[in-house]
Every structure is written in structure tokens, then in C-alpha cells.
Design brief:
It is a single chain. With 134 residues, the protein is of the alpha/beta class. It contains five helices and five strands, in the order βαβαβαβαβα. Strands 2-1-3-4-5 form a five-stranded parallel beta sheet, with helices on both faces. The termini are close together.
Amino acid sequence: MKQLKIMVVDDEFASLALLKKHMSKYGECDGFEASKDALIAFHLAHAKRQPYDLITLDINMPYMDGNELLEAIRNWELASGKANRNDEVKIIMVTAAEDLKSRMRSLRKGCEEYLVKPVRADAVDAIIKKLEII
């Protein structure tokens, strides 16, 4: 099984720790509580030619929410010529909001999947399998 390079972004420590635990069986897992730190790490990973394979983003975060961070990542990929399904990082939005409006907003901004908190290991496994990245 391919080992993934994964970024988990969530401003709530307990949610961050739980999601990192679920994701770590798939590879190296970096966690960030602030969107700005995650965006810096995303750019550094590309500069080192070691980009992330998968990113999970909490939607409700202060300063820059998950959808804003998603948009920043997709805009950078577009500007750098990586805006095709083979080169884009796979992004899963994570939130307590189950409503269709929130889900559709994230999907329109370019995420692949959407997980509802509390995140369960079987839900993570199903999405990883569906994304076909391992």
C-alpha cells in the first residue's frame, strides 16, 4: 500500500488529534491548528518537491476558514499549472455542518469529499478507498 503524505487542519485540538489518528495508518500525517501555518507548509512541501497527497480541512476556523484555504490552494494550483485531477492534492472538508448548502459550497470550491464530525474511522476508510489514492 502506498504511503501518503497527509495534512490535517483543524483549530480544535481534540478533533485534530482524532483525525490525525485515523489518517496516520495511511502515511505521514502533519497537523496544523491555523490555516496560515497550513498554507505555508503546503507551499514549502511543493518547494521541496514533496507535495501532500491528501489534505483535510475543518470548515469553521478563525481568520481563514477551510473554504478560504481550499480556494487559496486551488488558485495556487491553477496558477502553477497543476490544476488537473492528476496533479491536484485531494482535499476532504471536515465539519459539524451537515446541511446541503455547506456541502455544495465546498464542492464548488474544489474539494473531493466531505466528512461530518464526529469523524469515524470507517468513514475515513471509505473515502480513502473512493479517492483511489492508495
